[in-house]
Specification:
This protein is mainly alpha-helical. The chain has helices at 3-23, 25-32, 41-79.
Length: 81
């Protein structure tokens, strides 16, 4: 690669790092960009894996909230009987 292309690639990667630091991982990868300017297959595979894990974590957290709310409701029901 010639120097200009290397400097351009460095700028793109630094842009990714900057967005992660300033906006946070979730916003950066879920809401902000598909990072079409990054031409790195491994990056995009990891990005898709991360998006999947974030969705799984949100679902898991919601499931745990629902479980605890149901238990609280059961306890309240038992206390009113």
């Amino acid at each position: 690669m010639e120097l200009d292309k290397l400097l351009e690639e460095l700028e793109k990667w630094e842009g990714v790092r900057y967005r992660i630091k300033s906006e946070g991982v979730e916003y950066c990868f879920l809401k902000y960009s598909s990072f079409e300017e990054i031409e790195d297959e491994e990056f995009h595979v990891k990005r898709q894996n991360l998006i999947g894990l974030i969705a799984e974590m949100k679902d898991y957290i919601q499931q745990k909230i629902t479980e605890v709310e149901d238990k609280i409701s059961d306890v309240n029901d038992e206390n009113y009987e």
